[in-house]
Amino acid sequence: MKRLICFCAAILLAFPLGGCDSAQTSAEVYLDSGIADSGEGLTLYFEEEEAAAQTRRTLEEFRSRYSKLMSDFEAASGHVNGELRKIEVTLSQLPRALDQTGAQLNELAARLEKKPEEKS
Predict the structure, then answer these.
(1) Which of 23, 55, 59, 77 has the smallest set of CB atoms within 10 Å of its CB?
(2) pLDDT by residue (tens digit) across 97-114?
(3) How much is the pTM?
(4) Is 67 helix (H, G, I), strand (E, B) or coil?
(5) H or E stretch including 96?
(6) For residue range 27-39, what is the model confidence (pLDDT) as tens digits?
(7) Non-local CB neighbours of 26 within 8 Å, separated by 6+ positions
(8) CA–CA–CA angle 12, 17, 19 (5° rounding)
(9) Domain map (residue ranges) of the chain
(10) Which residue(s) pair with 37 in the sheet?
(11) pLDDT for 115
């Protein structure tokens, strides 16, 4: 499967959409793109070791990006949790604040009711 993918990529490199340059033969294009003509057809000369090294480099890059992503996520999650705790504390204090506001409103209403009676 890997060889088929490499072969397809090499063919795309060898024959771009505009075709081959007239100054360059097909064989030169094959050699430039990593393909050699073995007489029985085109053969890839990419080494497995080269592919394994590329895979290792890709893996290391992925690990690096993954650990950075997880670090950023943990920092953001810690910040969000802190903000949620603040909201929770504020919400737990809300009933007491509303009770106090209700008591003050009742006191104000009582004062307003007494004043018209005092004038008469």
Answers:
(1) 23
(2) 899 999 999 999 999 988
(3) 0.42
(4) helix
(5) helix 48-119
(6) 444 444 455 555 5
(7) 14, 20
(8) 90
(9) 1-46
(10) 42
(11) 75
